[in-house]
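Notes on consecutive records. When two proteins share a document, each keeps its own sequence and its own C-alpha cell line. Never mix them. Below: protein one.
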Amino acid sequence: MLEKLVVRNIALVADATLVFSPHLTVLSGETGAGKTALLFALRLLSGERSDSSMVRDGEGSASVEGTFALDDGRRLLAQRLIAASGRSRCMLDGKRCTVAELARAVRPLLDLHGQHEQQVLLQTASHVRFLDAWIGEEALRTRDAYEEAFDRHAAACAEHAALVRAASASIEQRELARLALQAIDAVNPYEGEYEELEAALPKLEHADALAQAASSALQVLRREGGVEDALAEVSMELGRESGIDKRLDGFAEMADDILVQVEELSSDLRAYRDSLEYDPQVLVRYQDRLAALDGLCKRYGPGIEDVFARAADARRTLTLAEEGNEALEESQARVGEAEKALVAAADALARVRGEGVDAFSDALTAATTALAMGGASFTMGVSDLPRSAWTREGTQHLELLYSPGPAVAPRPLARIASGGELSRVMLALISEVDVAAAGTLVFDEVDTGIGGSTATLVAEHLARLSATHQVIVVTHLAQVAVFADAQLLVEKTAAAGGMPVTGVRMLEGEERVAEIARMLSGDDGAVSLEHARALLASAEETKAH
C-alpha cells in the first residue's frame, strides 16, 4: 500500500505531500492543474525513463519519494532524484540502487492504468496473457513448461545448425581451425582470467604509492591530537552532561558512533597497507600473461569471449572431421527429442487455454454488462499457427473480439471500441476478472467518455475494488469523487515572481462539498452545493450497504 508520496520540483509542483487512504483516494482539480506531473512522479518510482525537461524551471534537480506499507509489516522507502543535467539517482531505504532494482521493488506494489495501459488492450499479444491470468495456476504452470520446452528446442536447433556448418568446412578451413586451436591452447586462458588480471595489475604496479597513501592517512588519524583524540575528547565532554537533554545525548551518541567508524577505518587501512606487497617477478608474470591474452584477442577477438567462442568452433570442426557423421546424428536425435517434448507441451497449453476460453469470455461479458455496456459481448478468437510460426507465447493466435450489440458480429477491439468502452473493459479485467496483482491500483482517465448513470456504475465498481485493493483515481467526474474515502485537490496558484505553482491538499467538510459542486456544474452556487451534498449522502449510503 502506498502511504505517502512526496514530490519536489517536478513540472509546476514545487513541494507537495500526498497522503492516501488505504481504500479509495480521488485526485481532482481543474484541467492543467498538475495532475499529470503527479502521475509522472509515480511512473518514476516504478522505474520508467526519467525526463530532465520535467524538472521545474530554475531548479537544479527534482525528486520523488514514496512510502509503502508491505504485507509483512515493514515499510519501504523508494526515492528517485533527477538532475536538470539529465542524470538520475535511485534509492531504496536510503541505499543507492539501480533503476532496475527500483523497478523490481516497486512495480509489484503499484499498478498504473492510464491511456497508455488501455492501449495494451489493442495489442493482440496481451490478450493471451489476460486469459492465462484469469485461468490461474494451471495455465501459468503449463505456460512455463511450454516456454522451457520452446527454449530447449531452440537451443538444440542452434547447436545442430552449428554442427552442420562445421561439417561442411573445407580442408583449408579445418587447417585454420587446427592452427587457431593450437594457438589458443598454447596460452590456455580460463574464464574470468582476463578480468582478474585487469583488476590486479594496477594494484601491483602502484603498490608503493598505495601503501604510502594508506600509511599517511593512518598517521593523520592516529597522531597525538589527531582525529581520534579529538573525537574521544568530544565524546567525553558531551558525556559529562548526559541524561539532562535528549538532544545533547543524541550528539554524544553521534560522536561515539563516528569514533567507532574512525577506529574501524584505522584498522582497515592498516590491514590494507599490510596486504600490499611489491613483487617485480609477479608483476612481470602478470604483465606477460595479459599481453598473451591481448594477443589472442587481436587475432580472434575483439574480446576474450570471442576467443573462447573461436576455440569452441574450431574444436567442433576438428571433432566432426575425426568422428564423421556420428556427432551430427546425435545432434539430430536431440533436436527430435526436443521437438517431441515441445509438441507435448504445446498440446497441453492449448488444451488448458481452450478449456478456459468460453468461461473467460462469459466473465468479461458479465463484468462489462454491469458497467452499463448492456448488450455487449466478448468472444476469444482462436486459430492454430503453422509450425514455422510457433512463438514463445504459444502455438495459437488468440484475440479478444468485441460486439457492442446482439446484431453486430464480433470484431477486434481496435476497430470498434471507443475510449470510454476501453476504459470500462480495462476496469472489468482488473476488478471482476481479477488480473490485478499489485496491492495499489492507480487509474487515470478511467472515466473517459462516460457520464450520468454509467459514471455512477463505474464509481461503485471502483469502491468495491477498494475493499480488496488500495485504489487511487484521477477523475473529473463528481459521481466518482463522492465515493472516495479521501479526496485530494490538485490546484495551481500564482507564486512569487508570477510563476505558477501546483499544490495538493486534503479536502474535508464544506471544502469537499464545494469541490464536488464545481465538478458537477462548474460553480458553487446554492443549487450545486445542495446537489453535491445529496450525491455525497447517497454514496455513503451505498457504501454502507
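Protein two starts on the next line and is unrelated to protein one.
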Amino acid sequence: MGKNVAEKIIEKHLLSGSMVAGSEIGLRIDQTLTQDATGTMAYLEFEAMGVERVRTERSVAYIDHNTLQSGFENADDHRYIQSVAQKHGIWFSRPGNGICHQVHLERFGVPGKTLIGSDSHTPTAGGLGMLAFGAGGLDVAVAMGGGAYYITMPKVVKVELHGALQPFVTAKDVSLEILRRLSVKGGVGRIIEWGGEGVRTLSVPERATITNMGTELGATTSIFPSDEITRAFLKAQGREKDYVNLEADPDAEYEQIIDIDLSALEPLIACPHMPDKVVPVASLRGTKVDQVCLGSCTNSSLYDMLKAAAMLKGRQVNPYVSMSVSPGSKQVLRMLADCGALSDILASGARLLECACGPCIGMGFSPNSGGVSLRTFNRNFEGRSGTRDAKVYLVSPETAVAAALTGEITDPRSLGISAPDVCLPEHFTVDDSAILAPASPEEAPGVEVLRGPNIMSCPAGQPIPDSMTLPVGLKVGDNITTDHIMPAGAKILPYRSNIPKLSAFCFEVCDKDFAARAKALGESVVIGGGNYGQGSSREHAALVPLYLGVRAVIAKSFARIHAANLINAGILPLCFADPADYDRLAQGDELELCDIHTGLVSGEFTLRVHGESIRLCGSFSERQRAVLLAGGLLNYTREENM
C-alpha cells in the first residue's frame, strides 16, 4: 500500500510508537520556532531543563507579537529572548523583520522536514511541504533539548482540488469553504492533506494561506505536496538546494476524500464571531464597514500585497473607512517599495503598520465601538480585536479592498474593474541582516542572559493525587477559546512573562470575578462544554489556571493543543462519558474524584456530586500518565534527566 505525504514524513521521523491512528507517536523534530508572546516562557522552561545548547537542525526566535512598547515589559522580554537565543544556539529575528510564519516560509522552511512552533499557526509551513505543528512552549523547549514531540497519530483526510480559481476568488475563499463544510471541530484528530490537479494552479503563498487557516478546523496540521511550484519558490528565495520532491503515492489511502471544484467557488466571508460562520460575500451586500485590515500571517505575502496594491492604485479608500496594511516581512515591504506598489497603497489613504502581527492579536488598531471590521486574518473571536462589541469578519485581500473602496461589504466581482494579474518574481530580495546568528559553542559561556523585573519563573505543578475533592470554580459553555481563558491584546500581552500579574485577567471575558474567586478557593475545577480550549497554542491558558489552583478541567471535548498543554502543566483533563451530564453540574458544586491513579490506566473515572455518580473518561498514554503523576512535563523531564 502506498503512502500519503504526511505518512512519508512521519515514517522518517518516527522515534516511538507505530503509525496507527489513535495511538501515541513520538517524532524527531528538525526545526522549532517561537514568537515573543509565548517565547519568553518557552525559554525560561528551556533554561530550567539545564540543556546548554539546542539540539535541533534550526531553532529560530521571532519578535512579532508584542512590538507595541508602551512600557518596559515588552522591551525587556525582547532583550531576554535575544540574549538567551545567542547563548543557547538559537537564531534571532529582530523586531520589524516580520511575522514568524511568513519569514520562516521565506528563509527557513524545508520540504520533508518537521517543525513545531509555540504558535498555533505554525502549520503555515505545510504550504511548503513541511510537517509543521503548533504546540505549547514546553513542548517546544523539550524539542529544542533534543526530546521527541508526542502526538496522537492522526487520521489523514485528503482534499482533492479540481479546476482553477476564477477572477477575484482566492486561496482564502478555499479556506473558508472547507471551514463552511467541516466547522471549527471538523479537523480534530486529522491531518488535512491537499492534492489533485488543482494544486498545480496554486502558488506557495496561496498554499500557505490554506494551511494557515487549517488551524481553525482544529486539525493537527495541514500539508501540500512539494513539487515544481515549491522548487520555483525556493529558487526565487535563493534556496533551491533545500528542495526535495515529496508527493503522495498513487495508491495512498485516506480516511476521507473531499472534492472541491475551484472554478465553482465564489468570494466568501466568515461572520462574527467564529471562523466557520461562512456565507457568500454577495449575501451581505450593502453592510456598512468601518474598518479594513490587510495583513496577518494568513494574507501578508508579497502576492497578497501586490494584488491589493493593484486594486487600490489610482483609487481612494472610502472617507468613512479606516484601512491598515501590515506587510508580513521586511522582504515584502522592501519589494513593495522597490516596485512602486507601496506608493499606490499609501496614495489610496491606507495606513501602513509595521511588519508584525498587530491588529490580529489586538495589538493596536482596534475598531470603533460597535464597529464592523473586515480583516484578512484567521480568527474573529469575540473581543479578540480589542473592542468587545466589534463585529469582525474574515475575508480575502480582494474582498477587503472592495469594502475599503466602497465603504460597505462588496463582492469584488461587482466593482467593474479587472482582477489583478500578479506573478511572483523570479528572484526575491534577500536581506537576512535582521536575522542574528547565535554565538558559537566556544563563545556561548561568556554570553550574559539579560532579565528584566517583569520576567518571573513558570509556576510549579503538583503531582496528581489519587483522590481530590474540589469545588467548581467556573462553568462555561461550548467553543471556549484560549482567548476566553487567557486574553491577548495590548493591555495584557506585556505580562506573558509574569504569570502572577497575568492571572488577574484569567477568564475575564467569561467572568471578571473568576481570578479572585479561584485564589480564595485555593484549589478548584473548571467545567467546560464542547471543543474546550480551541484557538491559540498559548500555554498560558494552562499555566495561569495552574497558578490559580485549577487541578482539573472536565469538559464535553477538548481541542488538541490545549489538552496537551493541560497535561504538560499537570492539570487533569477529563471528558463526560455522557455529554448530557454536563447539565448536572453547577458552579459552586463540591466534586469528589477517587481512584484517579487507577483511572489514568483504565481511562474510566467516577465523579461524585450531591450523593450521585457521574462517569468520566480520559485517554492517556503511558508517558502522559507519568507526566501527570510527576506534576507536569517540566518535573517529568527533570526526573528523566536525573
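For the record: The longest strand covers residues 155-162.
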